[in-house]
Amino acid sequence: MKPARILFAIAALFAITATSALAFEATGQVQVTGEVIPKCVIKSLPSINFGQLSLADDGTASEVTANIPSLTYWCTADAYVSLGITLANAGGKMVRGAGGAGNEIPYQVAQIKPYLNSGSPSQSVYPLTSGATINNIWAGGPADTTNQLIDFVMVVSDYANAKVGNYSDTITLTFTY
Predict the structure, then answer these.
(1) 94 within 8 A of 167, measured Cβ to Cβ
(2) How far is the C-alpha of 126 from the C-alpha of 81, rounded, in Å?
(3) What's the maximum distance between 2 C-alpha atoms anywhere in the chain?
(4) Domains defined for the chain, CATH in brackets
(5) Which site in 13, 37, 53, 120 is 20 to 30 Å from 156, CA atoms measured?
(6) CA distance 145 to 165
(7) Which pTM does this prediction carry?
(8) DSSP per residue over 122-140, as a string?
(9) How many CB atoms within 10 Å of residue 75?
(10) What is the C-alpha separation between 23 and 18, in angstroms, rounded?
(11) Cα–Cα distance, 65 to 164 (Å, whole number)
């Protein structure tokens, strides 16, 4: 081999080695994080109307039950939430005007919980008072529509001494998560 070719081959090898040796590299990692925070949305709040309360011929008040359509909601998936109930008029009273004797009709609120009794559908009724909380309600997320209903019933029976007129109250439902 001619010395010029050998010299050229050595120079080419050095150039390739030098180029590789001059290529620097740095590697780093970026941590990617996020947090899903709980959220609840009440989709429907039913109105409750006992209708016209009429006394019996003997002047007694009969019990009137209002089955409340389900409260429909969604909460962030896998969240356990609590639902607080606040009755505007302490003790659960519908009032007429400023309230007072003859201008109040008490009512009771209860949660209905379905369950199976020896394989047959049944339900339990749990009375609720102002300030009551229904704890550990599981939420399946906005796409889950099967477990996001809460059923209530309201009963009014003591209106024999109530004056003629329209009575009302406000119930506030608050999800805590």
Answers:
(1) yes
(2) 18
(3) 132
(4) 40-176 (2.60.40)
(5) 120
(6) 39
(7) 0.66
(8) EEEEEEE-TT-EEEEEEE-
(9) 23
(10) 9
(11) 20
Decide if 154 contacts 127 (C-beta within 8 A). Answer: no
Rounded to 5 degrees, what are φ and ψ at 91? 85, 0
Which tokens belong to 55? 């006394």
Residue 94: exposure state from Cβ atoms within 10 A (0-12, 13-18, ≥19) = buried
Residue carrying structure tokens 């003997």: 58
CB 103 within 8 A of CB 170: no
Q: What is the pLDDT of residues 155-177, one digit of tens each?
A: 888 888 889 999 988 888 888 88
Give CA separation, 126 vs 88, 99, 111, 112, 135, in Å: 20, 27, 5, 6, 13
Q: Please name the amino acid found at residue 138.
A: W
Side chain identity at residue 60, one-letter code = T
pLDDT tens digits for range 103-130 = 888 888 887 766 555 666 556 667 777 7
Q: Is the Cβ–Cβ distance between 127 and 109 less than 8 Å? A: yes
How far, rounded to the nearest angstrom, does the alpha carbon of residue 153 sit from its chain's CA centroid? 19
The span from the CA of 172 to the CA of 140, in Å, is: 23
SS3 assignment, position 17 = helix
Matching residue, tokens 């429909």: 72
Residue 35 structure tokens: 């947090």
